[in-house]
Design goal:
Layout (H helix, E strand, L loop, with lengths): L5 E5 L2 E5 L21 E8 L2 E8 L4 H8 L18 E4 L2 E4 L12 E3 L13 H8 L9 H16 L21 H7 L10 H12 L1
Parallel strand pairs: 3-7
Antiparallel strand pairs: 1-2, 3-4, 5-6, 5-7
Helix pairs in contact: 2-5
């Protein structure tokens, strides 16, 4: 097969690609799929449980959580890291799971909104605060908002400043989470229903 042209469809029609298959650095099978060398065995610690999967190198964490592990709390909104609906925690830090390649997280601890309850029954204090404050409408962004808020609370406690942090706060000291701090730190999570005031109130209830 490598001796003849490989036909590809491009923006200007179909044309032969005369480079050998291996010259392109990709093993293309007759069915158009990629070879096994483009997959890796990856172990993810998700909500305290290990999951060992053989993953295509191109797959992002969000798709693995939803399609392989049936954890559908994290949502696919923009798929470009701009809306925050896919936010989860990786080793305690909030991330946009639609941007992270899953194979890069081998051995990492991933926490989704489903993993915030200790026994699957009792709600996390932040989840309870969202309910008490009615801090959602359609609920699509809520899992990402909650995971992002948890990450923000942790970052502030560890002394990581935000754009609005008072410069007089000593470096490395916990940053008080005022309403402005909460708004700034959650500004990467969009709520198209406009529940921002109640979201901020819910976070305030938890950090008081």
């Amino acid at each position: 097969m490598s001796g003849g042209p490989v036909w590809i469809r491009g923006p200007y029609g179909t044309s032969p690609l005369r480079k050998g298959i291996h010259d392109m650095g990709t093993d293309i099978h007759a069915d158009g799929g990629l070879s096994r060398r483009h997959h890796s065995e990856t172990t993810l610690q998700v909500n305290g449980k290990p999951h060992t999967l053989t993953l295509d190198h191109r797959r992002v964490l969000l798709d693995v959580l939803r399609e392989d592990l049936d954890l559908c709390g994290a949502k696919k909104g923009c798929d470009h890291g701009q809306c925050g609906a896919c936010t989860v925690l990786v080793d305690g830090r909030r991330v946009n799971s639609c941007l992270l390649l899953a194979v890069s997280l081998d051995g990492c601890e991933v926490t989704t909104v489903e993993g915030l309850t200790a026994d699957g029954e009792e709600l996390h204090p932040l989840q309870r605060a969202f309910l008490d404050r009615d801090a959602f409408q359609c609920g699509y962004c809520t899992p990402g908002q909650i995971c992002s808020a948890l990450g923000a609370i942790s970052e502030a406690a560890e002394g990581h400043p935000s754009h609005v942090t008072d410069p007089s706060v000593p470096s490395g000291r916990p940053v008080p989470l005022s309403r402005d701090e909460i708004r700034e730190r959650l500004s990467g999570n969009l709520c198209r229903c406009g529940a921002y005031p109640r979201i901020a109130e819910a976070v305030e209830d938890v950090v008081r």
